[in-house]
Amino acid sequence: MSITTTSPNALPAGLSKTRGGVRTWLKRGFFGLTLTVIGLAGIGAIYQTIATAKDRRSYTPPGHLVDIGGRRIHLVVMGEDTGQPAVILEAGMASFSSNFYWIQSELATATRVVAYDRAGLGWSDPAPEPQDAQQSAHDLHAALQAADIQSPYVVAGHSYGGLVVRAFTDLYPNEVVGMVLVDASHPDQWVHMPVSREGKVNAQSMIISGILARFGVVRFFHLEKSLSAGLPERPAAEMQAILAQPQPWKIGGEVLMIWNDRSRPQINQARRLGDLPLAVLSVTEQPYFADVLTSLQADLSTLSSNSIHYILQGATHEGLVAEQEHARVVAATIRQVLESARTGQPLANGSG
User: Fold this and answer.
1) pLDDT at 30
2) Per-residue pLDDT, 15
């Protein structure tokens, strides 16, 4: 009689074949999925390239480009020099001049109004490195000089643009006669939001959006529409076309990455505003960290002894400039600051 022995680790032949089949199936499935992803990415990249080329033909610069020493900055100028201070409009993180259509149009009957694009945004050439608030302020000043738009200025900044106009005022204090902060960023805001990891989470999100934009994802799913909702057809289309490209998101992410190390200390070390006419506008509709953001907006109003703080009921951060109803309030507030700068009369204290 013969006895057959088997290893205790040996598997029945049928089970071995089954597991081998599963592994083969998984390998084939993974290979197929990889090919599908690569194929879709390729199709998306082609779609993005064709659509971007079409957009660039359709949406040429609405303003003019001025040279600031090897780079060009795009300026949109409305209104005439009436003897009043020129109003300078500074857009948010990844935004640009088209976002200010309503506000600029409202103010153009009173004075000259300038909306512009920071380096790499809108139609402006990119800078050689990520820019902090002071570097953007230097660019703005150089562009205004190149365009022969002389001081005095009333500066108005929305969102991150608030940091830039504060840096501008600190660098050129004799040229600024009034300031409006339009739901503006506070330099310390990320410290009060630990979940943001000092803004790095938001920065990474924007950088990822820039990567997705390369493959047409932002464009296909219209992820950029929230920033332009409420604008007339042409400026809304300009914003959607440019925000469907990778560069605005990449630049926004880079600016956020250097916020705490570079921009934040610049603004916190800036001189106080004294009795410079200052208006702070904030909103009630905050989806996240409402209590923190509301408190920080109130803090901004203490920068000057001559300030007003208006809280717009029902307004959102983006809608404050993009929706005509709220944009008219912003424009009216800028007019108040212009009048205070012209007459020397203090602004009425209080909030509304």
Assistant:
1) 59
2) 47
- Which pLDDT score is estimated for 352? 41
- Name the CATH topology of 64-343: Rossmann fold (3.40.50)
Q: SS3 string of the chain? A: CCCCCCCCCCCCHHHHHHHHHHHHHHHHHHHHHHHHHHHHHHHHHHHHHHHHHHHHHHCCCCCEEEECCCCEEEEEEECCCCCCCEEEEECCCCCCHHHHHHHHHHHCCCCCEEEECCCCCCCCCCCCCCCCHHHHHHHHHHHHHHCCCCCCEEEEEECCHHHHHHHHHHHCCCCEEEEEEECCCCCCHHHHCHHHCCCHHHHHHHHHHHHHHHCCHHHHCCCCHHHCCCCCHHHHHHHHHHHCCHHHHHHHHHHHHCHHHHHHHHHHCCCCCCCCCEEEEEEEECCCCHHHHHHHHHHHHHHCCCEEEEEEEEEECCHHHHCHHHHHHHHHHHHHHHHHHHHCCCCCCCEC
**35 CB-contact burial (10 Å; exposed 0-12 / middle 13-18 / buried 19+):** exposed
pLDDT at 33: 58
Contact, 278 vs 301, CB < 8 A? yes
| Domain coordinates in residue numbering, the chain | 64-343
Cβ–Cβ contacts within 10 Å for residue 272, how many?
11
pLDDT for 249: 93
Identify which of 132, 129, 120 has the alpha carbon closest to the alpha carbon of residue 249.
120
Strands 72-78 and 113-116: antiparallel
Within the chain, which residues score under 70 in pLDDT?
1-22, 24-41, 44, 223, 349-352
Q: What pTM value is reported for the model?
A: 0.88
Per-residue confidence (pLDDT) for residue 351, from 0 to 100: 41
- What the block records as the tokens of 351 is 């909030």
